[in-house]
Amino acid sequence: MGQYTKSAVKSYLCAMELLDGKLASKAIIDSLTLKVAQSKTEGKKIPHLAAVLVGNNGASETYVGAKVKTCAEIGFKSTLIRLEDDVTENRLLSVITDLNNDPDVDGILVQLPLPKHISDNNVINAIHPSKDVDGFHPVNVGKMVQGLPAFVSATPHGIMLLLEHYKIDTRGKHAIVIGRSNIVGRPMSILLSANTQPGNCTVTICHSHTHNLRELCLQGDIIVAALGRPEFVDASMVKPGAIIIDVGITRVPDTTKKSGFSLKGDVKFNEVAPHSSFITPVPGGVGPMTIAALMKNTFTACQERNDN
Ligand code: NAP
Q1: In this predicted model, what pLDDT tens digit does every residue of 74-125 receive, in sequence order?
Q2: Pairing relation of β-strands 174-178 and 242-246?
Q3: Which one from 20, 111, 131, 268 is the annotated catalytic residue?
Q4: What superfamily in CATH does domain 153-287 come from?
Q5: pLDDT in tens, 237-290
Q6: CA of 3 relative to ligand 1 center, distance in Å
């Protein structure tokens, strides 16, 4: 539970319930592990995730490392392709073409952010939609918007799985999504407004040009904070009993830590938690759910490619 030990959280809070991403993701990982064991017994193909990491950004290394480790835990095959920071866009695109053409590879992820000289869009568009387990390709985004089966961006997909795990009835609730990025805020707003459970929310999507953000947040039955500003959402922005989903992860310098940094969410946890009915911690909330959703997508990609 990172800086919030379970006992500290329990003694500090009364009515609120922690949305424990470690616990919820474990249920998904365990179920996938069983399915892979069954596939092995039946002689079926084992899912294979290929991850591409450009450069040596510390946070990206950590995220990719966690994904590769989870593949091993489940019994998936994984391949990590490391490319230098100064790799050309053409070289990266040709690596993706090779992975698209490799019949053994079921899912491809290219860890973002990429160096400035490479276009994220060109790279995302080069991944074949059937292997786009990160759900960033326009074909998958379009299908998701239409409510058709699609690979949904792992972070918003993971948040929906978390809401489902805790059986949170979101129907008719007013959700405030702070952030409109293509990988988190925008797909989150679409999923929450879809005619599904979880879903059926009335959604307000906010960004850096939004006026009266505090007043809007105070109307929110659900707040999804995905802006990447540590501890931005404080208690004065939260209506009592609101459901708080903290997506933010920022490395903040911390001399008390061996690593030299600590991870901060976009929500002032200690202040906001007593006002909320449910809240995700950072770390241990949305992060593990993102990985679980990616693994689920990879399993589906393998099934779809090999059962058709
Ligand atoms: P991003 O691409 O930088 O987008 C941030 C969004 O927040 C933008 O839409 C921006 O508005 C908006 N914003 C910035 N400052 C604001 C303010 N003061 N008021 C209102 N809106 C504001 O970031 P992202 O990729 O979506 O990621 C957001 C955070 O989530 C980051 O901390 C990231 O590390 C974290 N994250 C976590 C996971 C996970 O697995 N837990 C996964 C992905 C991302 P404009 O559009 O107007 O610029």
Answers
A1: 999 999 999 999 999 999 999 999 999 999 999 999 999 999 999 999 999 9
A2: unpaired
A3: 111
A4: NAD(P)-binding Rossmann-like Domain (3.40.50.720)
A5: 999 999 999 999 999 999 999 999 999 999 999 999 999 999 999 999 999 999
A6: 22
Q: Is 134 a catalytic residue?
A: yes
Q: Pick the atom of ligand 1 nearest to 228's CA.
A: 32
What CA–CA distance (Å, rounded) separates 278 from 166?
9
Domain 44-128, CATH homologous superfamily name and number: Leucine Dehydrogenase, chain A, domain 1 (3.40.50.10860)
Task: Give me the catalytic one of 20, 106, 132, 134.
Answer: 134
Q: Give me the amino acid identity at 234.
A: D
CA 106/CA 74 separation, integer angstroms: 15
On the question of pLDDT at 182 being above 50, the answer is: yes
For residue 126, the CA-to-ligand 1 centroid distance in Å is 24
Distances (CA, A) of 196 to 117, 136, 164, 187, 193: 40, 21, 11, 14, 8
Q: Which of 136, 247, 266, 282 to mutate to test the pocket of ligand 1 (most atoms within 8 A of CB)?
A: 247
Mutate to test the pocket of ligand 1, among 124, 181, 267 (most ligand atoms within 8 A of CB): 181
Which residue's CA is minimally distant from atom 42 of ligand 1?
Answer: 155
Q: Which residues line ligand 1 (CB under 6 A)?
A: 155, 178-181, 183-185, 206-210, 213, 226-229, 247-250, 286-287, 290
Biggest alpha carbon–alpha carbon distance for the chain:
58
Mean pLDDT of the chain: 94
Does 2 score more than 80 pLDDT?
Answer: no
In this structure, the strands spanning 261-264 and 250-253 are antiparallel
Same fold, 44-128 and 153-287: yes
Report how far ligand 1's centroid is from the alpha carbon of 227 (Å).
3
Q: Do residues 173 and 221 lie in contact, with contact meaning Cβ atoms separated by under 8 Å?
A: yes
